[in-house]
Each structure stands twice: as C-alpha cells, then as structure tokens.
C-alpha cells in the first residue's frame, strides 16, 4: 500500500512516501525557550521562540496520527562531566554552558533546562537524540537510524531556524535526505535571520530543500 502525500511548498510541491518520512523536531528545550536558560544567557529575548510552539505541536499531532511517520526529537546539550564541549569553550560569549541557570546547569544533559518543553514532550515510542553540536548528524547516530528505517524525507521543525535547524538541514541535504522545513513551526530570536534562513532553504530551485506552512502540511496529511 502506498501512502504518498503531495504537499504544496516553495519552490514547488513535494510528494513524500510517509513510510519513508521522519518528522524531526529540533531542540524545543527549556534552555532555548524559557527564561534563565542558554538562549537568554546569550542575550536573547526567549519569548520570540514561542511563536513556533503551537504550529510545532499541531505538526507533531498530525504526524502522530500517521502511523507511518518516524518521530524524532533532538536536544542540544553536553555531558555533566563537560567532556563533550569543544568549540563552545572557545567562544567568549558562549561560555555559560555548564554554569548554574534557573533550571540547573545550562545545556547539560539531565538538567531541567535541557529537557523538552511540555507542549511537545516526546512519547516513550519516539526517538530522543542528544547532540553536542548544532547539527543533528554531528557525533550522533541519526544517520544510522534514518538509513536503518529506510527514511528518505525529513519534515523539519524547531529552533532556532538559522542555527540548529539550518545546520541540520544542510547536513541532511549533503547526505541525500529531502528536507521539508515547516516555516511557522521554526523560530529565531532574530526575525530577519528567520526570514533569511527560510528563504535560503528554498531559493535557487530549493538548494537545501522545500518550505511549507504547518497548515499546508497538516491539510495534506488529512
Ligand atoms: N543560539 C542559537 O540561536 N541557537 C543555538 O545555540 N542552538 C540551537 O539553535 N538549537
């Protein structure tokens, strides 16, 4: 039985076989979305990311209703021993990692702030991928999981658009995965970076992939 859906998108529609499709939700963690975490420590207005929560939840629910779609949640963070922090330590402004924040040590695995916000909390059956970098493929078993499940297409949501979402999409594109980025289910602390990052995905004939709205995707899945 084929379960192919066609989704209107920029720069053109995409047809995805849902048995070969994964939803990947990037870093919807308290450390990025709530006050006192990593995002705020970098000087950002974390409230800006909240726009993405409802669309992200709607996409997650729509994909949960499709038995065929593999669901993956990522979390950016480091081991409590801080042995997997590398380039962050080199930065003068990123050196808050591991320091005490409102939700425990900032961006450290197992701390409250490192966890995913309740609105899109993973189910037991869903994959949770801990990553030490911006991209979801670097130093993780994501590619192994996707190849083992015959995944060819990725529906991508999460934060922030120009950092971890973009890095993941670029890594995925080079590995031959077709990415569909859900514009309103992604967000940035910096509005113009969100807009530019989204356009960079679909410009030049879809140089990194395609872009659709949550509404366009959800309608196609109904
Ligand atoms: N700083 C920023 O915009 N983002 C990150 O550090 N990580 C993610 O995007 N998840």
List descriptors.
alpha/beta, 222 residues, single chain, 23% strand, binds tricarbonodiimidic diamide, two-stranded antiparallel ribbon
Heterogens: tricarbonodiimidic diamide
In spatial order, strands of the major sheet run 7-4-3-8-9-10
- Helical element count? 8
> What portion of the residues fall into strands of 2 or more residues?
15-25%
End-to-end Cα distance, whole Å, is: 17 Å
Structural class: alpha/beta
Radius of gyration: 17 Å
Poorly predicted tracts of residues: none
Account of the 3D structure:
It contains eight helices and ten strands. The protein is α/β, with parallel strands linked by helices and 222 residues long. Strands 7-4-3-8-9-10 form a six-stranded parallel sheet, with helices on both faces. It has a two-stranded antiparallel sheet with strand order 1-2. Helix 3 runs parallel beside helix 8 and helix 6 runs parallel beside helix 7. It is globular, with a radius of gyration of 17 Å. The structure holds tricarbonodiimidic diamide. The site of tricarbonodiimidic diamide has 10 residues, from helix 6.
């Amino acid at each position: 039985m084929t379960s192919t859906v066609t989704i209107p998108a920029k720069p053109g529609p995409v047809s995805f076989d849902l048995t070969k499709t994964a939803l990947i939700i990037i870093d919807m963690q308290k450390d990025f979305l709530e006050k006192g975490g990593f995002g705020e420590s970098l000087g950002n207005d974390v409230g800006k990311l909240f726009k993405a929560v409802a669309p992200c939840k709607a996409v997650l629910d729509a994909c949960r209703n499709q038995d065929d779609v593999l669901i993956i949640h990522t979390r950016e963070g480091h081991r409590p021993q801080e042995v997997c922090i590398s380039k962050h330590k080199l930065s003068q402004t990123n050196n808050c990692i591991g320091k005490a924040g409102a939700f425990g040590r900032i961006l450290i695995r197992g701390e409250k702030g490192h966890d995913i916000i309740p609105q899109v909390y993973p189910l037991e059956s869903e994959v949770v991928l801990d990553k030490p970098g911006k991209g979801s493929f670097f130093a993780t078993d994501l590619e192994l999981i996707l190849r083992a499940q015959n995944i060819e297409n990725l529906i991508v949501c999460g934060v922030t658009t120009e950092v971890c979402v973009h890095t993941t999409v670029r890594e995925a594109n080079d590995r031959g995965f077709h990415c569909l980025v859900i514009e309103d289910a992604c967000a940035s602390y910096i509005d113009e970076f969100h807009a530019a990052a989204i356009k960079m995905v679909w410009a030049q004939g879809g140089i990194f992939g395609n872009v659709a709205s949550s509404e366009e995707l959800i309608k196609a899945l109904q």
